[in-house]
Amino acid sequence: MRDFDAVIFDLDGVICYTDEYHYQAWKAMADSIGVSFDREINNRLRGVSRMASLDIILEKYHGELSEAEKEELADQKNEIYKKLLAQMSPADLSDEVKSTLDELRRRSYQLAIGSSSKNAPFILRQIGLGEYFDAVSDGNNITRSKPDPEVFEKAAKMLWVGAKRCLVVEDAVSGAEAAHKGGMKAACVGDASRAGAGDYNMKSVKDLLEILP
Ligand code: BG6
Ligand code: MG
Hints:
- The chain is α/β, with parallel strands linked by helices.
- 44% of the residues lie in helices and 11% in strands.
- The mean pLDDT is 96.
């Protein structure tokens, strides 16, 4: 018997790369209030929700901001971010990721997205995967961000698959932690793989084809 019935993919850093757009948008927002922001801080925002990301950036802000002012700053960042996302197209989906997804589907795994991003549906449409996944669990249907397992638990529920039968694919350590807290196994790429955070630490997404017969 196979070990898994479903694969739940994180979006940013696994299916496509929006890091640079997050960086540029947060940088513009941080510049506008005179807060220093660099790529090192940007790396800490991986998998973290929009408001929690803002709190991390504001660690360097000397002053008080009301909740309404914070919302406004987050909105300001998101408007810039969405303009950058609008430049994305199916060319931003690599052949390797697309052919891996297609092969997993051919092997009859259920495929879902588990992303902290409220922009996930927009990004998926931009890269031509708007209707592709069997379930999309994202920043719009959760109240707690990774490393809380909520986003993956909701994805599993949408698929009607038990946690133990789901494999989560992540690039963030907080995402691998979320998978484990939800009773799921994690296959990691990128940062999380280098940190050895996964049950499987892969060189690239296509290595899933070795794990999932
Ligand atoms: C995650 C990113 O996918 O989404 C985080 O890794 C980001 O960096 C989070 O903060 C929330 O994104 P959005 O699109 O809802 O602002
Ligand atoms: Mg990610």
